[in-house]
Write a structure and sequence with these properties.
This protein is of the alpha+beta class. The protein is built from ten helices and 13 strands. α7 crosses α9 and α9 runs antiparallel to α10. Its EC number is 2.7.11.1.
Length: 353
Amino acid sequence: MRRCKRIYDVVEPVEEYRHGGYHPVHHDAFNDRYEIRAKLAFGQFSTDVALKILKADASKDSKELSILLHLSIRFRPGTSRKNHLMQLLDHFEHHGPNGTHLCLVPPVMISDGEAMTITGRPHYAAYVQEWPVTPRALRAPELIRQNAWDASIDIWTLGCLNLPPPPPPPPLIGKTAPKPPSVASEGPAGAYLVELLIFNGWPFKDHWAYWVRSHSHPDIGVQLHATGDVRNGFVFQIKRNYDFHDKNSECPSTRIPLQWIDGKFFDERAMMNNGVFTLDDVPICGFEASVYKVKAPEKSLNTVTETAIAEGQKGQKVNQRNCQTWIVESADQLVRDSIFNQEVATYLHAIEQ
């Protein structure tokens, strides 16, 4: 194989040779095909090189190859440039004094140096780091319209990747899934249907809320829940005259009818705020007053204080309370107040994640 003229040598001192480390690169030939012309840089995806040689110990369980192979399949040549994705041309293993190295072969990508300078001097760091922010095909509306943006653009990008749906829950071994309460399609005169709303939170726990249907439409009503997180704590919140058909509304992934409740525990006109949407935290009817007796969970993550650690005390297990915990505990309260049947509370205990 023809030997190319070196631009400069890359020599690692002998004392730095170690098993699992970087491969000492000179003007070698790799895979009987690739001749080294120069070393451009080193790092993870930050290196734009024609031949990338991973450390030997990182080559064993590297995810880079599988990711690049997946992207190469999803984005065929001719579209990858538009999507600003690294295209994998080849890959192979190379044996050196420090072990076996995984070698990746992407095309050489040269940055636009002129765009990064002003009269020969570099731009400030933020200019170089924020451009172009996201590949063109994955850009959120804020970027396309050149509006102010924040970390929420990452959620848009994730959605554009068309990831597969979450895996199904593992099969129940030795027991059957609990059945929801048997609820008639129509209730007694003046009664209100209370439902459990489940918002898909995968890979985290689902968010739970109560739903009290209005008599006018099943998708308009009152949502009661504990909103927040285990790190900062939760607060009790009521969404009055909430309409799932509104473009700004978040629709649940599952609605489970729980029970028809006697109308004496509700005041629809007040609960629906005379037909105007609002957020509230003050109970105004018997049902709301009952669930309000159960306080929203406080923060239950990282509750071991530095003082306790300094004193050598062993950390104790902390039972995390969340929106589901509040629903289950408030269901017990509704049973004590003779509003819910015991069957409803038992079911909610059984399905809590």
